[in-house]
Amino acid sequence: MAIMGPNGIGKSTLLKIVMGEIRADKGEVEWGYETHLGYFAQDHEEEFQGAKETTEQWLWNFCAGRDRGFVRGQMGLMLFTKDDGEKKVSALSGGEAARLIFSRIALEEPNVLILDEPTNHLDLESIEALVAELECFEGTLVFVSHDRWFVSRLATRVVEIKPDEVTDYPGTYEEYVHHSGDDHLDVDRVVLKARREKRKKTKKMDVSVVNSAKEIRRAESDRDLLTDHIASAEQRAADIDEILAAPGFYERAASDEIAVLGNERGELKEQIERGLDEWAKLESEIERLRDSTDGTD
User: Which of 128, 155, 180 is the last residue of a domain?
Assistant: First the structure.
């Protein structure tokens, strides 16, 4: 099950409630008998806080009664080499830390997996390996991800959280897009839609306040131009996702081509996130100006 929605809507908070890390304002979470949870948090630095071991030693802590060969085999499943096993945990990159946590989760043999943005720090090869493992997972998978390819490969149920409603669709992501008529994983275009709906409800300004009107028009022009830039970046990111999701792409594509597309996709994601942050600031400024103008009525 994929849980989707704009940044700040509470997706990670929902998963923390599900995991019992924070209390819900209302209602309760109840798991069935013999439910064994595995949890990958979006912020997982605490997993290694104060750790001084090597990666192999750290993982061995979760392998009671097992020998070194078993530990190395588990690490190999997540693309760690023998030399990687000698690296200090404190020196791991974000992607290496994520892969080590997935190795630990696999050892726990959960029948329910809760994943919060699991692909954030992973390269394309690691994402492909993770998806292959998850496709073989026989339990229940609940995850939050903005990675369209990841969601398309794994989701058989989609729950979208919006500011004013929750949509639950029993089907794949592609079926959901066909049903809804909109691709909600166009890198948070849902944020723009939600805020535009809010903007439509704003009171009309007093036309006599000329200076405020000019400031509003200038800010709206900047916002609309930024919206176009974000949409262009979203479209290119969607095009890359389509290329990566094409059957047999990884078999026929050169490693350099895969790397170039992966780097471009990462840069687009950062560009879009920065654009959305700036868009939110402009929208807040427009609302502030409108509120100020309305106050003169």
Answer: 180
